[in-house]
């Protein structure tokens, strides 16, 4: 009878999902060499080549593609059994900035749930400033936010590039104040946009403030204003209008992960979240 080692299977799944031995090692808190050894032992045990690696690419082999779903099911059953024996249900609270929480967040959280069924993540979406304040007060265990100007702590997950977006029909006359829609007066992206306009000597007026990202999106999509959005989250039907209206480039910022978690399993979950975030950003880029 064929017996499978759970950690070897976990290494295989991590390499397959992240398409990188380096990122898989980081997520597992291990080394690239150790991941490679465990994968090789698994392949020898099943008598199949599961991962194909070239200097430029890591991908599933034909046999690996057949095995991947069974491997995930095997790990889910294994982790559920272990969680049942240990009764170690855990939870942590995660804050995600509204300008960061793109469509990939649901996928990333689902991946975490598959990795650790005993882990419950409570998610709070708000602006970066409020989330950082909550994290500093100990009300959040971790936060994924836009880098604040006066802080240099946290793990950088990647850059965030912005643009000025409006509908193609949006009308702005040269010399008139540019009409803005912003999330709230506490929003760091609002401060970034206004500071950029002030530095360039361009007059502005806020015609829509607050109400959440969906209402800001609605105001821009209706042609009432322009707004600064992360390029990957620009509303459908809008275009970048900085050149059209002579607006200055908005400086890029960084997305940062702050965490106070210390237990091994929770930190492993955060490593998986960080690696998956890197992966999605790389694909989007």
From TrEMBL:
SUPFAM superfamilies membership: Periplasmic binding protein-like II (SSF53850), Winged helix' DNA-binding domain (SSF46785)
Stored InterPro entries: LTTR, LysR_HTH_N, LysR_subst-bd, WH-like_DNA-bd_sf, WH_DNA-bd_sf
Pfam families named among the record's database cross-references: HTH_1, LysR_substrate
Domain HTH lysR-type: 4-61
Signal peptide residue numbers: none
Single annotated GO MF: DNA binding
Keywords, alphabetical: DNA-binding, Transcription, Transcription regulation
Domain of life where this protein originates: Bacteria
PROSITE patterns with a match to the protein in the record: HTH_LYSR
Homology family: Belongs to the LysR transcriptional regulatory family.
Name of protein: DNA-binding transcriptional LysR family regulator
Species per Swiss-Prot/TrEMBL record: Aminobacter aminovorans
């Amino acid at each position: 009878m064929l017996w499978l080692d759970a950690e070897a299977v976990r290494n295989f799944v991590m390499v397959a999902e992240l398409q990188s031995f380096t990122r898989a090692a980081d997520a597992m808190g291990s080394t690239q060499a150790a991941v490679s050894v465990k994968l090789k032992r698994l392949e020898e045990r099943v008598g199949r080549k599961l991962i194909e690696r070239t200097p430029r690419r890591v991908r599933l082999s034909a046999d690996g593609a057949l095995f991947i779903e069974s491997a995930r099911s095997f790990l889910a059953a294994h982790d559920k059994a272990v969680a049942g024996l240990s009764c170690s249900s855990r939870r942590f609270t995660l804050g995600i900035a509204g300008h960061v929480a793109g469509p990939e967040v649901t996928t990333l959280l689902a991946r975490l749930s598959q990795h650790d069924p005993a882990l419950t993540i409570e998610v709070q979406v708000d602006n970066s400033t409020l989330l950082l304040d909550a994290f500093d007060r100990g009300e959040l265990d971790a936060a994924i936010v836009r880098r604040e100007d006066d802080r240099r702590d946290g793990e950088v997950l990647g850059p965030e590039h912005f643009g000025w977006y409006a509908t193609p029909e949006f009308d702005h006359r040269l010399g008139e104040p540019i009409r803005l829609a912003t999330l709230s007066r506490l929003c760091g992206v609002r401060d970034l946009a206004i500071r950029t306009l002030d530095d360039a000597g361009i007059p502005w007026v806020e015609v829509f403030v607050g109400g959440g990202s969906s209402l800001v999106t609605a105001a821009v999509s209706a042609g009432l204003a322009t707004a600064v959005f992360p390029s990957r989250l620009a509303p459908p039907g809008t275009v970048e209008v900085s050149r059209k209206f002579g607006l200055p480039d908005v400086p890029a910022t960084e997305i940062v992960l702050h965490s106070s978690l210390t237990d091994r399993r929770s930190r492993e979950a955060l490593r998986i979240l960080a690696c998956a975030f890197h992966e999605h950003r790389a694909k989007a880029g």
